[in-house]
Design goal:
Layout: H1 12-22, E1 29-33, E2 46-47, E3 57-58, E4 62-65, E5 76-84, E6 97-101, E7 113-116, E8 120-122, E9 126-129, E10 139-140, E11 151-153, H2 161-169, E12 174-178, E13 182-188, E14 192-193, E15 204-205, H3 208-218, E16 222-229, H4 233-246, E17 249-253, H5 264-271, E18 272-277, E19 281-282, E20 288-292, E21 295-300, H6 304-322, E22 333-337, E23 348-357, E24 363-367, H7 377-381, E25 384-388, E26 399-404
Parallel strand pairs: 5-6, 13-16, 13-17, 14-15, 17-21, 19-23, 22-24
Antiparallel strand pairs: 1-12, 2-11, 3-10, 4-6, 4-7, 5-9, 8-9, 18-20, 20-21, 22-26, 23-24, 23-25, 25-26
Length: 410
């Protein structure tokens, strides 16, 4: 009987439902300056105390005037009564005159139209306006973007660079955010050697530690790196107890399968409880979830590609919800497959793939190379996952769901 035929495997959707139902968002709040808020999760709704823009302003370099002062047919010549750069406070516009104005400058009281300079001829005293201008042109009205009192961002929002600019545009200098989630990271395996050390026969370099630390940090969490744990019950138990005492969540790689040297599962059962074990996902079936003395525990497989996939698909949404984020599930986009996988899988597969453009400029996905659970290079050369759903075949030219890595690493 193949591993895919074994009973007890949860679908990805069932496992996610169980994980997310167990997530308990943090309640601790701190206030940080806007410059330090990138990637943090807002703890309270944010409101604007001003209109944006705060006054009608010019969308062009040109001349501000009253549309009623222009001729219906033919050119109009007006005296230039003032010059208004951005940041200057204008005087009221005198009837029958025009104001030289620049992009972003406040439109003077009395003016209702801005004519772009490309439609004008002028000297120091007068400007001649071409025929055919439109009333109200090239003016950005007060509050066009944001009205005073409007909600600009909601609690649970993870702050992106453009969000920092938005908050700055309404004068907010600091924001209340949830305390960073502290994630303890343990890697198990007597065969592991750290990069930079000599590699004895039978050993491998520890890539999982660096993949996971990078994924944890990229999502804005604090990574408590506890290093390599020896493959014995005592060392595993002590490491789990330390992690439970110091972190908000424990994340391990390796040790949750069924081998004689896989001690993590047994120790979690002893120190707490194991509520989920084995998921119908490929790569990455032996995924575990539970708690160690009340601290949530997620056990990932040991193979490098399995670690990358299961963190992105299962651990990421759980941790983001625990951080207080409301947007924690990635959205797949539909692209054209440029490969075939005629055999329908018994575990949902996450194929490392890269996006390419066809002759018509449409997005297509091609496999990045070897899909073995031990091959990490295709996660680097790929740009996302094609989801090969349970019971479905993929033929060249089919539309398939694609999860970009850019949506999984933030």
């Amino acid at each position: 009987m193949s591993c895919c035929d074994q009973t007890g495997l949860m679908t990805v959707e069932q496992a996610l439902e169980k994980l997310l139902a167990a997530a308990r968002p943090t309640a601790e709040i701190e206030t940080v300056p806007l410059m330090s808020a990138l990637g943090r999760v807002l703890a309270m709704d944010q409101y604007s105390s001003v209109d944006v823009p705060p006054a009608d302003n010019s969308a062009m370099d040109g001349f501000a005037l009253r549309f009623a002062d222009t001729a219906v047919d033919g050119e109009t010549t007006l005296v230039i009564s003032q010059r208004i750069p951005a940041g200057a406070v204008p005087e009221a516009l005198q009837p029958g005159t025009a104001a030289r104005i620049f992009t972003g400058a406040e439109v003077p009281p009395g003016a209702d139209t801005v004519v772009m300079q490309e439609q004008c001829r002028w000297d120091e005293e007068r400007v001649t306006i071409a025929a055919g201008i439109k009333s109200g042109a090239n003016i950005r009205p007060r509050g066009q973007d944001i009205k005073e009192g409007a909600s600009v961002l909601h609690a649970g929002h993870r702050l992106k660079p453009q969000d920092l600019g938005l908050l700055a545009s309404v004068g907010i200098a600091s924001v209340p955010v949830f305390r960073r989630l502290k994630v303890a990271l343990l890697c198990t395996g007597d065969e592991l050697v750290e990069p930079g050390e000599a590699l004895p026969p039978g050993y491998i370099y520890n890539s999982n530690r660096y993949t996971l630390a990078g994924q944890i940090t990229a999502l804005g969490f604090e990574c408590l790196d506890l290093g390599i744990v020896a493959d014995n019950a005592d060392a595993t138990e002590q490491a789990l107890l330390k992690a439970a005492a110091e972190a908000d969540c424990i994340l391990t790689s390796g040790g949750v399968s069924v081998g004689e040297e896989d001690h993590v599962k047994a120790c979690v059962d002893k120190l707490g409880s194991l509520d989920l074990w084995r998921m119908a996902i490929k790569p990455g079936k032996p995924l575990a979830f539970g708690q160690v003395q009340g601290t949530p525990f997620i056990g990932l497989p040991g193979n490098p590609a399995s670690v990358f996939v299961t963190f992105a698909i299962a651990a990421r949404p759980y941790l983001l919800k625990s951080q207080g984020a409301t947007d924690y599930l990635p959205v797949a986009v539909s692209v054209t497959a440029r490969f075939s996988r005629p055999n329908s899988p018994k575990r949902q597969e996450y194929l490392r793939a890269r996006l390419v453009l066809d002759e018509q400029g449409r997005a297509c996905a091609e496999l990045a190379g070897n899909q073995s659970s031990g091959v990490l290079s295709t996660a680097s050369s790929g740009s996302g996952f094609v989801i090969h759903r349970l019971g479905e075949a993929i033929n060249d030219g089919d539309m398939v769901p694609f999860l970009p890595f850019s949506a999984l690493l933030f």
